[in-house]
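User: Please predict the structure of the protein below. I'd like the answer in structure-token form so I can feed it into my own downstream comparison script.

Assistant: Understood. Taking the following sequence of 678 residues as input:
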Amino acid sequence: MTKNLLVELGLEEIPAYIVTPAMHQLRDRMATFLTDNRLAFDSIDVFSTPRRLAVRVRGLADQQTDLTEDFKGPAKKIALDADGNFTKAAEGFVRGKGLTTADIVFREIKGEEYVYVTKHEAGQPAKAVLAGIPEVLKAMTFPVSMNWASNKFAYIRPVHTLTVLLDDEALDMNFLDISSARISRGHRFLGNETEIASADSYEADLRAQFVITDPAERQHMIVEQIKAIEDKHNVTVEIDEGLLNEVLNLVEFPTAFMGSFDTKYLEVPEEVLVTSMKNHQRYFVVRDKAGKLLPNFISVRNGNDQHLDNVIKGNEKVLVARLEDGEFFWREDQKLKIADLVERLKVVTFHEKIGSLYEHMERTKVIAEKLADLAGLSADEKADVARASDIYKFDLLTGMVGEFDELQGIMGEKYALLAGEKPAVAAAIREHYLPNSAEGELPESKVGAVLALADKFDTLLSFFSVGLIPSGSNDPYALRRATQGIVRILEAFGWEIPLDQLIAELYSLNFASLTYDNQSAVMDFIRARVEKMMDKAIPKDIREAVLASSTFVVRLQLAASSAIFQKSKEADYKQAVENLSRVFNLAEKAEATAIDEALFENEQEKTLAAAVAGLELTEDMAGNLDKLFALSPVIAAFFDNTMVMVDDVAVKANRLALLKALADKASVVAVFNLLNSK
């Protein structure tokens, strides 16, 4: 007979961004706990609101499955002494399993007898196992935790209630000084505490107290309410997925409504208004059917539609205060001069160990000039890069960016255009921040892409040079994101710039403000970011072999990893890789590079030498791999008929040089002896 289990943890308001991940974490931990304890179940429902996390396990077995497990012990000759008595080794083995020597049997494996014991463990009732639920809750992890009252423990937020029901039976347990019961808290001001009658009545019992426990249902309510407003007012609402998820986790009973603001604020740049509404107030943006911004917003209250007019007025007052700030800074910033702001950057610290923002810009300009040449930019584009490099951080000292830091770069573009800068220069100021997330939007213009690369290169090299190197998950200066941006931009624009050569050139630059250091650590860091771009299905050995190659062009490395992965599915892969691996292993012993044909002693040696001499590899990595694999029979014949490590020093050196010549060419694709051919 199966039952349904409900576990609900009632807390103070959890930060919105944590609610959904925490809900899924509870589900996963509960599933693992039940599986590890041999308690079968059908499925797990999940519930969450700002003040609760809950799961309902459906079809939970009423008892653990029985456990029968065989354990292999020491060999018979070790388990028995000369008199046929059990040794301490045998006694220790069975004692560790909770058994005695009477349980020992001997089984023959490959001609040798070994000790075996079989342990039988009867399944316990579900209730006995479920007593471990507090440990599941205790194991939950969160980005932030807090202590409260005089307690020593830390948790995401103070815990108020714990409800554990097996069908309609309340189970007694304790978690963080909270005893379980069937009490759950209703809506903060519309509802009351209520008793949950059973695991199956959970949603209905709390719905009566104005709490919608199912996040999918709450989301559906919000979307449908917004659509109704759209239809009523003939408008279009931007339902941003991230904002929707945040709003969803701020309310327990959603009611959407539309407010408005004075049309005069529409004279302020749209980005300012949208930022004020979305980022600061969690409002949805309203547009007409043509996409033009309207002086309206959509918000979602945590409650019903009673006294909604007052709620709308309150929200309008709060928004107007933000819009007033935006209007003020927009007006005042236009009185500033770009040159004055750039000059002031000399006393603005980039980082105390690195220097000022102005010095950062100076280094970026030098790097940008080099990159512009390597990327093949036109003379006009190079001029735009140079001008953008001179001023691109100026907007950090404007009032608008000081108040709305999300608008850095965006306002820089607008103020630059107002000041008469070229559109390409202005766009580059905005684009140099891109991408601003792992999968974020990339720069569209070549000028912006070069500036973005240069800024990120100096940021990376500067922080590494002063020892501020990310370790583990710690990356306070977002260097992983910056480096990921570098490799993504290079790949997207098809700029086949060898990163090892470029980095070496950057380290040769002389700056008065900073001397670059820790070059090898930087290269390892960049390799790790390129690896992240490779298909997740590609095995680690292939990724490592490609990253160790002599090619450090992002596009070509990605192509090589993909080509080898596809080849690994073919029948001849193992043999070809083994042959090439043998070449690479021996090539490491080579000291000379000159090949003397007069020292060849057999036809196979001559054939391999001719094949190596005629081997021409291109940027077509799949084609290169085909050419190398085609040499497999030639390589095999060479090794079958030729001893490389002979006593004759000259002959040995000549053969090693031949293998090194092949390895050097093949290393354009990968270091083949790092590949697993098993």
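That's the full token string. The chain has a mean pLDDT of 94.
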